[in-house]
Amino acid sequence: MTKLWGGRFQKDTDHLVDDFHSSISFDQRLYRYDILGSMAHARMLARQGIIAPEEAEAIIRGLEEILADIEGGRVQFSVAAEDIHMNIEQLLTRRIGPVGKKLHTARSRNDQVALDVRMYLRDEIETIIDLLRQLVETLLDLAEKHLETVMPGYTHLQRAQPITLAHHLMAYVQMFERDMGRLRDCRRRTDVLPLGAGALAGTTFPIDPSRVAAELGFAAVAENSLDAVSDRDFVVEFAAAAALIMVHLSRFCEEIVLWSSAEFAFVELDDAYSTGSSMMPQKKNPDVAELIRGKSGRVFGDLMGLLTMLKGLPLAYNKDMQEDKEALFDVVDTVKKCLRVFTPMVASLKVRPENMARAARGGFTNATDLADYLVKKGVPFREAHEQVGRLVYYCLSKGKSLEELSLEEFKQFAPVVEGDVYRAIDIGQCVAARRVLGGPAPESVRQAISRARERLGR
Ligand code: ARG
């Protein structure tokens, strides 16, 4: 099998090596971008008088046919042709004859592969931003329905203070909005045309990268040819942004796993998003949530792999960089798959407000409010803390909650307590009184929801 680069060689590569260094099994997913990039390159070569207009036309027509054939499933890629770039060039030359051999003028696979990956990632970032937007919209809709659904807020997974489900969901809205921002930011640095850098040192041909950039919708052209072919920062940045998306999904999933247990019983998963046990007939397991939590690990692994692959590379291109693709594709596939199943799973959650409210009432979550009540009556906070601590201890021994104590019982520990205490420690009131910006009061959360909707609209 003659290689496109075979001129300098006296001997074929070992078949093990052919197989080892071939990337066609995975980089074939870049075929569309490779072809679009080649078309723009051919048009530019003709415009600049580097090849003849009829030659460019023949090349572009040939590429169009190849694109249609690939999409129609009529193309068998060859491992011997190494990668998607050489596969397509070989198909082209077979189809249109020697003129196909002119396509690679003033170009290297090094700038070509960087171009393909950037074009691919630009699109995938858009798709993922869109999936995040759908998730945020789902969370906002759900939050709107649960502005008054009181539940315990936790620290150390111990009941701490009462909040609402809406407030809890809005914390995740913040996280996913930051994720969208990181992706938009990363997209800006992805949106740079590397074509024209050649193998590493540019070219002597009078190329016109700015026109190619405009044609392919790139916002900028790479400023340095060495960097253009050896930069994969944008891949790492994307993987890091994706890793944080997975952290957020994983934390949420952990809560869904907890909340759907009989011990919490805050939510029930829809049958469509849970599975049974092969042995225990009663089981309804939160497999989807667990699997998303589990899949976060592979994305972190991909990120680590990318960083490690890059760290020792001298400038400019090195074959190590071919290893960027499987990691990148895995990140893209995993994040998309997780978001696609997570959003409808959350949308179909059955919420159990009674159980949430019972848990909020049961865990002395209004103890801070009682201390604050004493402070407002003139007791120094540290003293109020002490008095309420003793009251809680007393309640525990009597099996009572704070609101079940009589005025006399209150006064034994906290002499300034009066009849208005019951309103001050009513759970609903404790939430409603937290009207600060970013707080759980229904009014505050309603405003947070409308601000988030406004940001989404932009
Ligand atoms: N398949 C290669 C990659 O993914 C394309 C670039 C190859 N360049 C080279 N000089 N071997 O990185």
From TrEMBL:
Protein's cellular compartments: Cytoplasm
Residues covered by the Argininosuccinate lyase C-terminal domain: 364-432
Pfam families: ASL_C2, Lyase_1
Protein's UniProt keywords contain Signal: no
GO biological process, one term: L-arginine biosynthetic process via ornithine
UniProt protein name: Argininosuccinate lyase
PROSITE patterns (alphabetical): FUMARATE_LYASES
Its EC number(s): 4.3.2.1
Enzyme class: lyase
Pathway in which this enzyme or protein is active: Amino-acid biosynthesis; L-arginine biosynthesis; L-arginine from L-ornithine and carbamoyl phosphate: step 3/3
Record's keyword terms, sorted: Amino-acid biosynthesis, Arginine biosynthesis, Cytoplasm, Lyase
Domain of life: Bacteria
Similarity comment: In the N-terminal section; belongs to the lyase 1 family. Argininosuccinate lyase subfamily.
Reactions catalysed, as given in the entry: 2-(N(omega)-L-arginino)succinate = fumarate + L-arginine
Gene Ontology terms, MF aspect: argininosuccinate lyase activity
InterPro entries: Arg_succ_lyase_C, Argininosuccinate_lyase, Fumarase/histidase_N, Fumarate_lyase_CS, Fumarate_lyase_fam, Fumarate_lyase_N, L-Aspartase-like
GO cellular component term, pick one: cytosol
Residues of the Fumarate lyase N-terminal domain: 7-301
